[in-house]
């Protein structure tokens, strides 16, 4: 039964496209509309920024880019693509534009594969005072801040690094689920992976094209614990299986900051149908310690899943549209072969 508030399913997102509430520079790609979100595509250029910024309530992003000292140079992505370097901040216009009707707002998040290669992204809109949030009634372009942290990345127009979820009114939280870390893998198996620095460029279109051993080293716990090194990036996995029913959507959210000085997620959307396969799916966690070494122990809570109602059941659930991570355990991004 349809709700009067909730996360918009795929057919409602397609209706927004048909009505002009979502406009695109080029027709939507196959699979771009997900069960409860829309993938966002890079446009034809990028701006190397001096530093990250928010335009504030009185300025557009284009006006900010015209100010002296905001961006260092423009990069053309249309020839053979471009490499975005680590330690740099870029702003990339997106191919999607919004003209949201009253009562519809949106929120963005990195795609799972983006988070798993340690690429930090945030959505920026005109006159915004917060990243990733699009207020009801917003009309204008979308931009993506992109900052590779460990691996430089090769990008081209049309690449999808982020996704956006639309909501009618403000859905109430149905439930929350605490997610803890699994540091007791089967004998001889790693509990996770730590990224290697200076290991080469990740081509976003090179699916399965990168040898994992060149980019990652396995992590083996001792006595159910590991030590996170400051500013190192880890791929770990949840102890619990995660299930998202057909009438709900979930988002990974930070747990109370006093539980540990580390960040335990980058990519946060879990679509309806995730983990409903036989045997379930676990949550892969992108983990980074901040300023000091930190001991992480088996079963330690690291994040939480926040569940919200769908406005209606999606036409296609996660797992049935070429999903890469249904039924996953510990798993690197789709760019790597192990």
Layout: helices, strands, pairs:
Blueprint: E1 6-7, H1 10-19, E2 22-24, E3 38-41, E4 45-49, H2 61-66, E5 71-76, E6 82-84, E7 89-99, E8 104-110, H3 112-115, E9 119-125, E10 133-134, E11 139-148, E12 153-155, E13 160-168, E14 175-180, E15 192-195, E16 202-203, E17 210-211, H4 212-215, E18 216-219, E19 225-228, E20 233-242, E21 248-254, E22 262-263, E23 269-270, E24 281-289, E25 294-297, E26 301-309, E27 336-337
Broad structural category: mainly beta
Q: What's the tally of helices?
A: 4
Gross geometry: globular
Describe the main β-sheet briefly: 6 strands, antiparallel
The appropriate CATH architecture of the largest domain is Distorted Sandwich
Total count of strands: 27
Instruction: Tell me the distance between the termini.
Output: 43 Å
CATH topology grouping of the largest domain: Deoxyuridine 5'-Triphosphate Nucleotidohydrolase, Chain A
Low-confidence stretches: none
Approximately how much beta-strand content do the residues carry? 35-45%
Cα-atom radius of gyration: 20 Å
Work out the count of structural domains: 2
The CATH superfamily of the largest domain appears as Deoxyuridine triphosphatase (dUTPase)
């Amino acid at each position: 039964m349809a709700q009067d508030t909730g996360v918009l399913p795929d057919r409602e997102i397609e209706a927004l496209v048909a009505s002009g509430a979502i406009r695109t520079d080029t027709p939507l790609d196959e699979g771009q509309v997900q069960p409860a979100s829309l993938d966002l595509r890079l446009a034809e250029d990028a701006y190397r920024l001096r530093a990250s910024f928010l335009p504030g309530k009185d300025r557009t992003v284009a006006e900010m880019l015209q100010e002296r000292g905001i961006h260092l140079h423009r990069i053309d992505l249309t020839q053979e693509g471009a490499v975005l370097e680590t330690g740099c901040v870029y702003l990339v216009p997106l191919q999607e534009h919004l003209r949201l009707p009253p009562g519809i707002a949106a929120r963005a998040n990195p795609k799972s594969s983006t988070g798993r290669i340690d690429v930090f992204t945030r959505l920026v809109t005109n006159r915004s005072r917060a990243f990733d949030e699009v207020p009801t009634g917003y009309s204008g372009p979308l931009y993506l801040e992109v900052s590779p942290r460990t691996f430089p990345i090769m990008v081209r127009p049309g690449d999808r690094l982020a996704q956006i979820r639309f909501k009618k009114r403000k859905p109430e939280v149905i439930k929350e689920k605490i997610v803890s870390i699994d540091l007791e893998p089967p004998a001889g198996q790693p509990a996770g992976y730590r990224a290697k620095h200076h290991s080469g460029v990740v081509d976003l279109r090179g699916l399965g094209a990168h040898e994992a051993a060149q980019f990652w080293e396995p992590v083996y716990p001792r006595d159910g614990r590991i030590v996170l090194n400051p500013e190192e990036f880890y791929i770990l996995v949840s102890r619990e299986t995660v299930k998202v029913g057909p009438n709900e959507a979930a988002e990974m959210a930070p747990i109370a900051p006093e539980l540990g000085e580390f960040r335990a997620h980058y990519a946060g959307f879990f679509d309806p149908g995730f983990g409903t396969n036989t045997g379930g799916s676990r949550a892969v966690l992108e983990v980074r310690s901040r300023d000091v070494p930190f001991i992480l122990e088996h079963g330690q809570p690291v994040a939480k899943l926040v569940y919200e109602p769908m406005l209606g059941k999606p036409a296609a659930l996660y797992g049935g549209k070429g999903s890469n991570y249904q039924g996953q355990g510990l798993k690197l991004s789709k760019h790597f072969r192990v």
